[in-house]
Amino acid sequence: QVQLVESGGGSVQAGGSLRVSCAVSVNIYTLNCVGWFRQSPGKAREGVAYKTTAGENARYVDSVKGRFTTTRDAATNTVDLQMDSITPDDTGVYYCAATKGPCSLDANRYTYWGRGTPVNVSS
Q1: Which residues share a beta bridge with 46?
Q2: Among 79, 100, 114, 119, whose Cα sits 20 to 30 Å from the Cα of 9?
Q3: Could you say which DSSP state residue 67 is in?
Q4: Are the CB atoms for 58 and 50 separated by under 8 Å?
Q5: What is the distance between the alpha carbons of residues 113 and 18, in angstroms, rounded to a whole number?
Q6: Is 56 a residue whose pLDDT tops 90?
Q7: Which residues 6+ apart lie within 8 Å of 56 measured at CB?
Q8: How far apart are CA 29 and CA 48, in angstroms?
Q9: CA-CA distance, 36 to 116, in Å (whole number)?
């Protein structure tokens, strides 16, 4: 059974940085892709970024390009999301998700989900 556990959320001021991590309970190479999603109050869940578990392919939603970076550590089976120049619009609950299928920013393509970690950005 694949389990994902997020950590590292919290409160940060606008312009600052925050790093959230996703611990995967299985060998990360048994999965094809790990994605990051966020959900803000009153809004639909949004795909933020994904990272292939093999290779270096990654993709970001336009609103975070140049500010967010997702990295993979196969030795520890973790995937991180580094968030820089963070803004109040980045506030939300951040989820990591994994799939053995093709990578996508579409949440419906992901099978395994963590419970989320909250990020609150104050202005």
Answers
A1: 38
A2: 100
A3: T
A4: yes
A5: 21
A6: no
A7: none
A8: 21
A9: 10
